[in-house]
Structure formats: C-alpha cells, structure tokens
Amino acid sequence: MRCLVLGGAGFIGSHLVDALVRDGHSVRVFDLQNINLGNLQQSIGSIEITLGDFGNINDVSPTLDGMDVVIHLISTTTPGPSNKNPVYDVETNVIGTLNMLKEAARKGVRKIIFPSSGGTIYGIPQSVPIAETHPTDPICSYGITKLTVEKYLSFYHHLNDLDYTVLRFANPYGPRQRINSVQGAIAVFLGKVLKNEQITIWGDGSIGRDYFFISDLISAIMKVIGPGTKSKLYNIGSGTSESLNEIIKVIEEVTGRKTKVNYTPPRMFDVPVNCLDISRAREELDWHPQVELRKGIALTWEWLINSHRPS
C-alpha cells in the first residue's frame, strides 16, 4: 500500500518506516523542516521525504495525494508541559489534526492509524489492568487532546466513511529514543547511567507503568495497516506494570553500574499506576508482546553504547 507516516523521522516513526519498507509498501515521510534524518538512514534510499509544518495545511495537503493509509505520529507536546499551555496543545495537535482529516477525506485516503495514549487517557484507574471499556478521565491536557482526536476520528468515519484504528500505547522504549527528554523513563535513565549523571525521580519511585519494547509497538501497527479491524480501538502494551524503582534495579543489573537517584516531590498529573489490559489485541489481532523487559533494556543499552562510542 501507499503509506504516509506523519512524524516518520522520530523514534517510533523511523522504526515503522523501516518495517513498511521491508514489507514492500510505498512510503512517504512528513516531518519538520529542521528534523535530523539520521534515524532514517536504513531506509532513506527507498522512501520519499517531505518536510514542512504540520500546523500549515498547505504543507500537509500535498503529502496526502495518492495515499492509502496515514499513520499519524506527530505530537507537539508531552504530558507534563502540555498542562502549562493547554491552548497551544489544542491549537497544534487538535486543530492541525482536524485540518489533516478534512483533507484526507477529500483526497480519498482510505484509513488513518492514530497512536493514542494508554498512559494518560484513562486518568486515575478504577481497576487494573485497564481495559478499553474503562472510563476516560485524563488529568493532563495531553490525554485530553488525544481523546479529542479519537472522537473526531469516529466523527469523520461516520461523516465521510474514513476508516481508522486507534492504538492506545502504554510506555514504549528502545533504540533511537531520545535520552535528553522529559518523556521515556527507560531511555532517559540509561542515558544518565551512560554519562554517570544523577537520575531524578518524581515521588518515591513506587509509580507503576506499563513498559513495552519498540519492536512490539511496530508489530501492532503492522497488524492494523489493512482495512477492516474488528474493533476501532486497542490497548497496546506489555500487560504488566513495573515501578520506577524496579526499572532502576533492572538497569543496574543490565549495565553493571550503580545508579545515583534523586527523589523529588511527586507531580500532580502522574497517575499512581498504569497497566493496560491487552486481551482485545491478543484475541482480535493475534498480537502479543515478544520482548520481555530485561531483554529490551539490554538491547537499548547496547544501542546506546554503540551510538555514543567515540569515532
């Protein structure tokens, strides 16, 4: 198929581009003007790249021409900073997506795949593991905008018969993830260990999250590239929860290095635990995670060591 990956040069996008190329799909990437294309070096000779501003529909519209599927990976915010400026969050993510959906429907795109946030969209869980039927009550702007986009995807499906699938991701990690970021605990922690720097944890480290490896995320997207999934919404994660303190312990075991941790007051937007029920994806998509936590952290550490080795 002809696939457009919005945000295709990033951590998730570049791994997806590689998988799509391996499977013989025609791939077009859209990303920022000044984006580093290093993540795409494996596939850069086999893809089309268009650079521009997602907020400018005149930049986005031509990239939709002739596309069968759009995988929408662009997000301008992360959970913490989104609360500081919800207006910016809505203007850049919701409005930009609405403009894209209108053009996609007009140009005959068959399907939109939208990675939503299984970590923020449910809010404080009433039960664990969290199924897709759990109430959605996000406590950060990031989760609210993700939920809003989900609703508009359903709206455009009914209005224009534009097919879609939403994948509510837990906490992905793996090679190519940024180590200098406010999001992605495992990659950030490994980066601190590599540089012999102190790790900062908000709270006492008991907060539990559902971590899953990047290759498992990509295999989930590949399962829904085609038309006609039984459901429109799937949780995608490991189906288990690990505390930050448990992550620190595994990192020390994998790297053989002692970490330095600074515990600070908790953040108001952090839910105490997040663990997704992935049974729907198992049953309907025949998908389940393949890479267990220790192996995934070891693979990420190996990539980090090799990518930061002096030339």
Describe the overall structure.
The protein has 311 residues and is an alpha/beta fold. It contains ten helices and 13 strands. The protein has helices at 11-22, 57-60, 79-82, 86-106, 141-160, 185-194, 214-223, 244-255, 279-285, 293-307, and strands at 2-6, 26-31, 48-51, 69-72, 111-117, 163-169, 171-173, 199-202, 208-209, 211-213, 233-236, 242-243, 261-264. The strands form four sheets. Strands 3-2-1-4-5-6-11 form a seven-stranded parallel β-sheet, with helices on both faces. A two-stranded parallel ribbon has the order 7-10. Helix 1 crosses helix 7 and helix 8 crosses helix 10 (293-307). The chain is globular, with a radius of gyration of 19 Å. The termini are far apart.
Shape field: globular
Please report the distance between the alpha carbons of the first and last residues: 39 Å
Number of beta strands: 13
Low-pLDDT regions = none
Overall mean confidence score, pLDDT? 94
For this structure, the quaternary state is single chain
Q: Bin the strand percentage.
A: 15-25%
* Number of helical stretches of at least 4 residues: 10
Fill in the keyword field for this structure.
18% strand, 311 residues, 10 helices, alpha/beta
Task: Describe the structure concisely.
The protein is 37% helix and 18% strand.
